[in-house]
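Figure 2 data, in text form.
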Amino acid sequence: MGNAHAVRLADIAVIRLTRTCLIFACAAVAIAQKPENVLVVVNQPSAISRQIAGYYMKKRAIPPLNVCAIRTTEDEHISRAVFDKEIAKPLAACLTTKHLQEQVLYIVTTKGVPLKIDASQGKDGEYASVDSELTLLYSDMKGTSHSLPGAQTNPFFGKLDIPFTHPRFPMYLVTRLAGYDFADVKAMIDKALLAKNRGKFVIDLRSSDDATGNSWLRTAALLLPKERVVLDETDEVLYNQKEVIGFASWGSNDKNRHKRLVGFEWLPGAIMTEFVSTNGRTFKRPPNSWNISTFKDTKLFWEDSPQTLTADYIHEGATGAAGHTDEPYVQFCPRPDYLLPAYYNGRNLAESYYVSIMGLSWQNIVVGDPLCSLGRP
């Protein structure tokens, strides 16, 4: 696919019209959801899970009723049987007993809650992130059990002009409060409360053109205010950007990127996404000497992969981040042309990410406070 200058004038006109419509549509649906719409999940055996939950609930004034305690392993990887018995079942019972099934729109997991369900892999695999699997707990509780093989359709995907409510959308929006340590998570929570609609949206294409991913990145740039966009289509990788409020790129899948960290100045409320298969594979901190590499350099892997890490962006100062526990395939990565404009126009963090993700019961994770919002432009 050619660069942005090669986009036909007619296509640009359509994109500009879409941008205008998007501004009004998002403004109309930017409902300020409340703390009582959030459910916090605590893994009782995990000290850091309890610590994060307590801090977040205090800072966001989450009602004491809106916490569900589970007892399970602190291991990041679990089996399907453990997920069903020790996570999904007690959460469903908690929501039912407390009469919160309809009121709760967002579920927040915490560091110390398992991350990934190990199972068969591939496009028809039954593997999934714990968080993405929990998005369908609502419909499961209603008696509509979802299929396990492959990604399941996200009913909220692309619904930019519709408020997220129950029962219209039979799902929960699940985000995770996690980082390398409590300090990272505390900073992320604090920054969410300071978010403002200012700063730059940094969009970095890779030189080997990808007709799908690169076109989404270009469209995202066209749907945002020109004066607030840094768009790079060269072979260079953007490092050390200032006043960043949004970032989308190919991460370590850009062959020209050789640094683990981007070195950005992240503003409070800043979010990121990238087309990387395993960036959400772990929240275990690698050595400071570790760096991204290639799949040929198996001795340089961290937690079975050479790719960038979602947790690094949080550690650097981002307030929200997307990731994948395993191969999602590009079509199931968050679409930046939905994510960034929705967030800019006033959707909260959880809704902005999930309106951009096509599949559920899949590999996706969303890190951050679901209520974080820049407010309307």
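Caption note: The first strand starts at residue 38 and ends at 43.
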